[in-house]
Amino acid sequence: MVPSDQLKKIQFLDDLPDDILEKISPHARQAVFEPDTILIRQGDFQHLVHMLVSGKICLNARSDTGRVLTLDEVAPGQSFGLSAFFGNFPATFTAVCTTPCDIVVLSGDLMAKLFETDHRTGYTVMRRVAQLFKDRRNKHTEQFLHALSTHPAINPV
Amino acid sequence: MVKIQDLRHIRMLEKMPDRLLALIGQQAQLSIFSTGTCLFRTGENVDAFFMVMMGQVALTVALNPDMDVILENIQSGRTFGSSALISGGPASYTAICQEPCEIITLSGERMQQLFETNDELGFYLMAGVARQYKTSMDARAKMIMKTLDRHPEMKPFIHDIETLTPAY
Q1: Phi, psi (5° rounding) for residue A68?
Q2: What pLDDT does residue B89 have?
Q3: Does B148 contact chain A (CB < 8 Å)?
Q4: Which of A103, B50, B117, B163 is the most exposed place for a label (fewest CB within 10 A)?
């Protein structure tokens, strides 16, 4: 169990109503991980939502040809693996602790069961996830179009 | 009004209980559109959720004044305009029928009202919407990564590259 005031420090959860956080709280677990711990590997199915309380986590993604194209640092308060809420999505990145990390985790399976019995909680959380994914999808689209508009074949020098 | 068995053709609704499909069916409207019909344009307010029963709809954006890019072709069983179910807002693409289309529409405003009184309906539909955004978000990220893989020299031109990783 992780108290709801602790959950409020997580950006993904910070604007959810208190009664919803109280319902999520018993399902959350907090743990400390050593540096170099691999939390999830690219391609593995995600079963846990990870929410960083303190420390640093690197997320990196390999392309089909094996080149690491992106590298990001997860900051305290940020989360990843939200698709664990609806299962069967492979991770699109590998997550590695680069310092000792204090992490709150939520089991996707346990949360799915909670959502099935408490639809209000399910609706509220899924609406939040949908909005986050939508905003990120739109950013990706902008980035893709920007990349395309600078593509030498489309915009020759 | 649309029958439950017709709604079952929509992938997002496949596993939805009949009682919820009946509710959706009461709000739904089936329309036929001819080739070339523009359902909405980039920047216009999207006030309906679209479910394609038959035909194909292209989701396009203008890359420059002379060139449009097809982001996705939406075919039978798939949906678009999900933002109408969350908060509405301006469309980030233009939707054009590529062939004669049978499309089921739901009013976003009416559905959002229903979600306030029926959490179960809200949960099932919102989970479907989140899954759909996740799929298209990953597809876009893959497109960018593929482009950068082939043209690493373009990396400096991609702003906010760190947002490709799914940290929130």
Answers
A1: -80, 115
A2: 79
A3: yes
A4: B117
List the CATH number of the domain containing B98. Answer: 2.60.120.10
User: Can you give the three-state secondary structure of chain A, one letter per residue?
Assistant: CCCHHHHCCCCCCCCCCHHHHHHHHHHEEEEEECCCCEEECCCCECCEEEEEEECCEEEEEECCCCCEEEEEEECCCCEECHHHHHCCCECCCEEEECCCEEEEEEEHHHHHHHHHHCHHHHHHHHHHHHHHHHHHHHHHHHHHHHHHHCCCCCCCC
Which residues in chain B are closer than 8 Å to A79, comparing Cβ atoms?
167-168
Which CATH number fits the domain that encloses residue A38? 2.60.120.10
Q: What count of Cα atoms within 13 Å lies in the side-chain half-sphere of residue A22?
A: 3
Count of alpha carbons within 13 angstroms of residue B120, beta-carbon side: 10
> For chain B, how many structural domains are there in total?
1
A97-149, pLDDT tens digit by residue? Answer: 999 999 999 999 999 999 999 999 999 999 999 998 888 888 778 877 877 77
Task: Please tell me the distance in Å from A149's CA to the nearest CA on chain B.
Answer: 7
Domain count for chain A, please give it: 1
pTM for the whole thing?
Answer: 0.88
Q: Is A31 exposed, middle or buried (0-12, 13-18, 19+ CB in 10 A)?
A: exposed
Inform me whether the C-beta atom of residue A9 falls under 8 Å from chain B C-beta atoms. Answer: no
What's the token pair of residue A90? 């492979």
Task: Assess whether pLDDT exceeds 60 at residue A156.
Answer: no
The pLDDT tens digits for B110-160 are: 999 999 999 999 999 999 999 999 888 888 777 777 777 777 777 666 655
Q: Is B165 inside a domain boundary?
A: no
Q: Name the residue of chain A whose CA is nearest to B91's CA.
A: A138
Name the phi and psi angles at B47, rounded to 5. -110, 10
